[in-house]
Amino acid sequence: MPENIFDERFAPFYDATAADMFDPAILSPTVEFLAALATTGTALELGVGTGRVALALSDRGVHVHGIEISPAMVAVLQAKAGAETITVTIGDFATTRLDARFGLAYLVYNTISNLITQDEQVDCFQNVARHLEPGGHFVIELGIPEVRLPPGDTHRVFEATSTHVGVDEYDLVAGTLTSHHWYMVDGRSEQFASTHRITWPAELDLMARIAGMSLVERWADWDRTPFTAESRKHISVWQKPA
To answer: What is the percentage of the chain residues whose pLDDT exceeds 70?
Structure first.
Protein backbone atom coordinates (compact mmCIF):
# COMPACT_ATOMS: atom_id res chain seq x y z
CA MET A 1 0.00 0.00 0.00
CA PRO A 2 1.32 3.51 -0.79
CA GLU A 3 2.64 5.52 2.15
CA ASN A 4 0.18 7.89 3.83
CA ILE A 5 2.16 11.14 3.80
CA PHE A 6 -0.86 13.36 4.49
CA ASP A 7 -0.91 12.62 8.21
CA GLU A 8 -2.27 14.36 11.30
CA ARG A 9 0.58 16.88 11.23
CA PHE A 10 0.02 17.99 7.64
CA ALA A 11 -3.72 17.56 7.05
CA PRO A 12 -4.91 20.52 9.20
CA PHE A 13 -2.97 23.05 7.11
CA TYR A 14 -3.23 21.31 3.72
CA ASP A 15 -5.92 23.68 2.46
CA ALA A 16 -3.79 26.68 3.39
CA THR A 17 -0.93 25.37 1.27
CA ALA A 18 -3.22 25.05 -1.75
CA ALA A 19 -5.35 28.14 -1.21
CA ASP A 20 -5.01 29.27 -4.83
CA MET A 21 -6.65 26.02 -5.98
CA PHE A 22 -9.89 27.15 -4.29
CA ASP A 23 -9.98 30.30 -6.44
CA PRO A 24 -13.20 30.18 -8.52
CA ALA A 25 -11.10 30.96 -11.61
CA ILE A 26 -9.44 27.56 -11.13
CA LEU A 27 -12.12 25.51 -9.37
CA SER A 28 -15.13 26.50 -11.49
CA PRO A 29 -13.72 25.29 -14.84
CA THR A 30 -12.65 22.06 -13.13
CA VAL A 31 -16.14 21.40 -11.82
CA GLU A 32 -17.81 22.41 -15.11
CA PHE A 33 -15.59 19.98 -17.02
CA LEU A 34 -16.25 17.08 -14.64
CA ALA A 35 -19.97 17.74 -14.26
CA ALA A 36 -20.41 17.56 -18.04
CA LEU A 37 -18.96 14.02 -17.99
CA ALA A 38 -20.94 12.83 -14.95
CA THR A 39 -23.92 12.00 -17.12
CA THR A 40 -25.26 9.34 -14.75
CA GLY A 41 -25.08 11.73 -11.79
CA THR A 42 -22.41 9.66 -10.05
CA ALA A 43 -18.66 10.16 -9.70
CA LEU A 44 -15.75 8.46 -7.98
CA GLU A 45 -12.91 10.70 -6.78
CA LEU A 46 -9.64 8.87 -6.17
CA GLY A 47 -7.69 10.67 -3.47
CA VAL A 48 -10.62 12.83 -2.36
CA GLY A 49 -8.48 14.57 0.27
CA THR A 50 -10.19 17.48 2.02
CA GLY A 51 -12.95 17.65 -0.57
CA ARG A 52 -12.02 20.71 -2.63
CA VAL A 53 -13.49 19.29 -5.86
CA ALA A 54 -15.90 16.75 -4.39
CA LEU A 55 -17.88 19.33 -2.43
CA ALA A 56 -18.14 21.69 -5.39
CA LEU A 57 -19.20 18.86 -7.70
CA SER A 58 -21.77 17.71 -5.16
CA ASP A 59 -23.21 21.23 -5.20
CA ARG A 60 -23.87 20.61 -8.91
CA GLY A 61 -26.06 17.62 -8.01
CA VAL A 62 -23.49 14.88 -8.62
CA HIS A 63 -23.28 12.15 -5.98
CA VAL A 64 -19.56 11.79 -5.21
CA HIS A 65 -17.95 8.79 -3.54
CA GLY A 66 -14.34 9.33 -2.51
CA ILE A 67 -11.49 6.94 -1.77
CA GLU A 68 -8.78 8.36 0.50
CA ILE A 69 -5.81 6.77 2.24
CA SER A 70 -5.52 9.44 4.95
CA PRO A 71 -8.07 9.45 7.80
CA ALA A 72 -6.67 12.83 8.85
CA MET A 73 -7.54 14.39 5.48
CA VAL A 74 -11.02 12.86 5.63
CA ALA A 75 -11.51 14.36 9.10
CA VAL A 76 -10.85 17.81 7.63
CA LEU A 77 -13.34 17.11 4.84
CA GLN A 78 -16.02 15.89 7.24
CA ALA A 79 -15.79 19.09 9.29
CA LYS A 80 -16.84 21.17 6.26
CA ALA A 81 -20.34 22.30 5.35
CA GLY A 82 -21.98 19.90 2.91
CA ALA A 83 -19.68 17.00 3.79
CA GLU A 84 -22.67 14.79 4.61
CA THR A 85 -23.30 14.50 0.86
CA ILE A 86 -19.88 12.90 0.24
CA THR A 87 -19.43 9.18 0.92
CA VAL A 88 -15.83 8.23 1.71
CA THR A 89 -14.04 4.89 1.89
CA ILE A 90 -10.64 4.76 3.59
CA GLY A 91 -8.14 2.88 1.46
CA ASP A 92 -5.58 2.79 -1.33
CA PHE A 93 -7.34 4.00 -4.46
CA ALA A 94 -5.25 1.73 -6.69
CA THR A 95 -6.76 -1.42 -5.20
CA THR A 96 -9.78 -0.58 -3.01
CA ARG A 97 -12.94 -2.12 -4.47
CA LEU A 98 -16.45 -0.78 -3.94
CA ASP A 99 -19.77 -2.46 -4.55
CA ALA A 100 -20.84 0.31 -6.91
CA ARG A 101 -20.42 1.62 -10.46
CA PHE A 102 -19.97 5.22 -11.57
CA GLY A 103 -20.35 7.25 -14.74
CA LEU A 104 -17.17 9.20 -14.00
CA ALA A 105 -13.92 8.61 -12.11
CA TYR A 106 -11.28 11.28 -11.68
CA LEU A 107 -7.88 12.10 -10.20
CA VAL A 108 -6.98 15.80 -9.92
CA TYR A 109 -4.01 17.95 -8.89
CA ASN A 110 -1.29 15.40 -9.75
CA THR A 111 -2.66 12.75 -7.39
CA ILE A 112 -1.87 9.84 -9.75
CA SER A 113 1.83 10.63 -9.22
CA ASN A 114 1.52 9.69 -5.53
CA LEU A 115 1.56 6.10 -6.80
CA ILE A 116 5.32 5.87 -7.23
CA THR A 117 5.63 2.56 -9.10
CA GLN A 118 4.42 1.62 -12.55
CA ASP A 119 2.65 -1.45 -11.15
CA GLU A 120 0.61 0.72 -8.77
CA GLN A 121 -0.44 3.04 -11.58
CA VAL A 122 -1.42 0.13 -13.83
CA ASP A 123 -3.45 -1.29 -10.92
CA CYS A 124 -5.16 2.08 -10.57
CA PHE A 125 -6.32 2.15 -14.20
CA GLN A 126 -7.60 -1.41 -13.94
CA ASN A 127 -9.39 -0.60 -10.69
CA VAL A 128 -11.06 2.41 -12.30
CA ALA A 129 -12.20 0.28 -15.25
CA ARG A 130 -13.88 -2.11 -12.81
CA HIS A 131 -15.82 0.74 -11.24
CA LEU A 132 -16.96 2.55 -14.38
CA GLU A 133 -20.31 2.05 -16.03
CA PRO A 134 -20.09 1.09 -19.72
CA GLY A 135 -19.35 4.30 -21.58
CA GLY A 136 -18.03 5.96 -18.41
CA HIS A 137 -15.05 8.32 -18.38
CA PHE A 138 -11.80 8.52 -16.42
CA VAL A 139 -10.14 11.94 -16.04
CA ILE A 140 -6.61 12.73 -14.82
CA GLU A 141 -5.02 16.14 -14.20
CA LEU A 142 -1.23 15.82 -14.18
CA GLY A 143 1.70 18.17 -14.59
CA ILE A 144 4.32 17.72 -17.30
CA PRO A 145 7.69 17.21 -15.54
CA GLU A 146 10.27 19.95 -15.98
CA VAL A 147 13.22 17.73 -16.81
CA ARG A 148 15.18 20.16 -18.99
CA LEU A 149 17.83 20.60 -16.31
CA PRO A 150 21.46 21.57 -16.97
CA PRO A 151 23.80 18.54 -17.01
CA GLY A 152 24.54 17.42 -13.46
CA ASP A 153 21.73 19.45 -11.85
CA THR A 154 19.11 17.58 -9.86
CA HIS A 155 17.18 20.41 -8.14
CA ARG A 156 14.82 23.06 -9.49
CA VAL A 157 13.23 25.88 -7.49
CA PHE A 158 9.68 26.19 -8.81
CA GLU A 159 8.40 28.79 -6.37
CA ALA A 160 9.97 31.21 -3.89
CA THR A 161 7.68 33.65 -2.07
CA SER A 162 7.41 35.02 1.46
CA THR A 163 5.03 32.18 2.38
CA HIS A 164 6.30 29.25 0.31
CA VAL A 165 9.53 27.88 -1.09
CA GLY A 166 9.24 24.84 -3.33
CA VAL A 167 12.12 22.77 -4.68
CA ASP A 168 11.82 19.68 -6.86
CA GLU A 169 14.62 17.10 -6.55
CA TYR A 170 14.84 14.85 -9.62
CA ASP A 171 16.09 11.28 -9.81
CA LEU A 172 15.88 10.57 -13.54
CA VAL A 173 17.34 7.09 -13.14
CA ALA A 174 14.56 6.06 -10.74
CA GLY A 175 12.01 8.12 -12.68
CA THR A 176 10.86 10.05 -9.60
CA LEU A 177 10.98 13.51 -8.15
CA THR A 178 10.77 14.55 -4.52
CA SER A 179 8.97 17.83 -3.99
CA HIS A 180 10.28 19.77 -0.97
CA HIS A 181 8.18 22.55 0.54
CA TRP A 182 8.74 25.14 3.25
CA TYR A 183 5.59 27.03 4.27
CA MET A 184 4.73 29.91 6.57
CA VAL A 185 1.28 29.14 7.98
CA ASP A 186 -0.30 31.36 10.65
CA GLY A 187 3.10 32.74 11.54
CA ARG A 188 4.83 29.40 11.97
CA SER A 189 7.16 27.46 9.68
CA GLU A 190 6.11 24.06 8.34
CA GLN A 191 8.12 21.65 6.16
CA PHE A 192 6.73 18.93 3.91
CA ALA A 193 8.14 16.57 1.27
CA SER A 194 6.50 14.08 -1.07
CA THR A 195 7.85 11.71 -3.72
CA HIS A 196 6.14 11.41 -7.10
CA ARG A 197 6.51 9.17 -10.13
CA ILE A 198 7.38 10.88 -13.42
CA THR A 199 4.79 9.65 -15.90
CA TRP A 200 4.34 10.95 -19.45
CA PRO A 201 0.96 11.14 -21.22
CA ALA A 202 1.85 8.37 -23.66
CA GLU A 203 2.54 5.96 -20.80
CA LEU A 204 -0.84 6.77 -19.24
CA ASP A 205 -2.48 6.06 -22.60
CA LEU A 206 -0.88 2.61 -22.61
CA MET A 207 -2.09 1.97 -19.04
CA ALA A 208 -5.59 2.91 -20.16
CA ARG A 209 -5.33 0.55 -23.12
CA ILE A 210 -4.25 -2.30 -20.82
CA ALA A 211 -7.36 -1.59 -18.73
CA GLY A 212 -9.59 -1.62 -21.81
CA MET A 213 -10.09 2.15 -22.11
CA SER A 214 -9.16 4.57 -24.89
CA LEU A 215 -8.19 8.24 -25.03
CA VAL A 216 -10.98 10.57 -26.16
CA GLU A 217 -9.71 14.03 -25.11
CA ARG A 218 -6.50 15.73 -23.99
CA TRP A 219 -6.25 19.41 -23.07
CA ALA A 220 -3.71 21.74 -21.49
CA ASP A 221 -6.21 22.95 -18.86
CA TRP A 222 -9.79 22.58 -17.69
CA ASP A 223 -10.91 25.37 -20.02
CA ARG A 224 -9.98 23.12 -22.97
CA THR A 225 -6.92 25.06 -23.99
CA PRO A 226 -5.23 22.98 -26.73
CA PHE A 227 -2.46 20.66 -25.52
CA THR A 228 0.92 21.42 -27.13
CA ALA A 229 4.60 20.65 -26.64
CA GLU A 230 4.82 23.72 -24.39
CA SER A 231 1.92 22.77 -22.10
CA ARG A 232 2.89 22.43 -18.44
CA LYS A 233 0.08 20.02 -17.54
CA HIS A 234 -2.59 17.94 -19.21
CA ILE A 235 -6.21 17.03 -18.60
CA SER A 236 -6.70 13.60 -20.17
CA VAL A 237 -9.98 11.74 -20.61
CA TRP A 238 -10.28 8.03 -21.35
CA GLN A 239 -13.49 6.12 -21.94
CA LYS A 240 -14.64 2.62 -21.17
CA PRO A 241 -16.43 0.98 -24.13
CA ALA A 242 -20.20 1.44 -24.07
So the answer is: 98
Q: Which residues of the chain have pLDDT under 70?
A: 1-4
Nearest to 136 by CA among 225, 230, 241: 241
**204: nearest Cα among 134, 135, 131, 141:** 141
For residue 222, what pLDDT is reported? 97
For the chain, what is the mean pLDDT?
Answer: 92
Handedness of CA 81, 82, 84, 89 (dihedral sign): negative
Decide: 217 and 236 in contact? Cβ < 8 Å. Answer: yes
Q: Is the dihedral of CA 97, 100, 64, 139 positive or negative?
A: positive
Kindly list the strands in the beta sheet with 176-185, ordered across the sheet, starting from the edge strand earlier in the chain: 155-160, 164-171, 176-185, 188-197
Handedness of CA 66, 35, 120, 210 (dihedral sign): positive
